[in-house]
Amino acid sequence: MRPRKRNAEKTKAAIIKAARRLFARRDIAAVSYRDIAKAAGVSHGLVQHYFGTREQMIAAIIQNEIEAFGKLLAQGEADRTGLTFENIRTRLRGGALQFHDFARIITRAELAGVKPEKMLDPATPTPAMALADSIRELQARLPKSSTRMDPRLVSAYINASLFAFAAMSPWLMTSVGLEPKDYEAKRDEITEISIALVSLAAGMTER
Question: Residue 125's pLDDT is what?
Fold first, then answer.
């Protein structure tokens, strides 16, 4: 790789990382290019050069998140001989660690009218699609599964729950009489609730 290209990619990565952090903490419209440039340690002109609009930066953040999940998925499948609930549990736990800031960015983008759903590439599987495929694979193991749950809807529901917890955990935990700080301690329990929903949708129990 040429030094100039390598430096350009490094600069873009720094800008995306800085924008991700700032967008998660403030309204998207309240984050200026200068704010992003300062956080990334680059010039204001470079931010505009690589990302002319906030929408372009959000699109890049979304792409990075999906690519990161793809790497996580590939690592988990390296020695896989057949899908298990433990595979799914590992994915959900790994995804939960990444969800916190990303969930807030997606929420802020929707509220700002940016329409992040239009930034998805139909040819690139999202984490939600991967979970739906896992549920579908589990369903296929049963010759005559009695379940009628659509794997896509179940995956969307689970992802909605994880996103809501990540974006609004203080309010959600307080609303049911728990302490906001309990969210971190109960991540594994939240994952188990998701696994129970996957099990129900697949029409089978974990073995």
Answer: 87
Q: pTM here? A: 0.81
Give me the residue spans of the domains in the chain. 1-52, 58-202
How many residues make up the chain in this entry?
A: 207
Tell me if the domain spanning 1-52 has CATH number 1.10.10.
yes
Give me the pLDDT at residue 75, please: 60
Question: Got the DSSP string for 99-116?
Answer: HHHHHHHHHHHHHTT--G
Q: Residue 182's closest CA among 195, 165, 167?
A: 165
Residues of the chain short of pLDDT 50, as ranges, are 1, 78
Q: At what angle do helices 3-25 and 85-111 cross, to 10 degrees?
A: 80
Report the CATH fold assignment for 58-202.
Tetracycline Repressor; domain 2 (1.10.357)
Q: In whole angstroms, what is the distance from residue 117 CA to residue 151 CA?
A: 19
Q: Which long-range contacts (CB under 8 A, 24 or more apart) does 48-56 make?
A: 50/8, 50/11, 50/12, 50/15, 51/12, 51/15, 51/19, 54/19, 54/28, 54/29, 54/114, 55/114, 55/119
